[in-house]
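Example 3.2
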Amino acid sequence: DSCQTLFTSGYEKGQSLSVPVAHGDGNYFAEESTLDRLEERGQIAFRYVGNPNGSARDIAGIFNETKNVLGMMPHPENAIDPLQGSTDGARLFSGLVQALS
């Protein structure tokens, strides 16, 4: 959802990524008031397309309040080389490297 962070600056808002999900039972859940607060503050980093695990509001990743910490369930480290079937995760890491350089 948000593209103005060091984690997401390499992506377009609304862009679909191909990133492996290495679990079938983990999902994000919280009270409705918490979900509303995350939405209002723009702390939802990524959403699933086709929500494979029933995650609340299709949430695949969230930021802390200052957006310098990212927690996510898909595995971008498994999408950094063409041999893995996708390089969509590489931009997340290159954004971090650029921000810290």
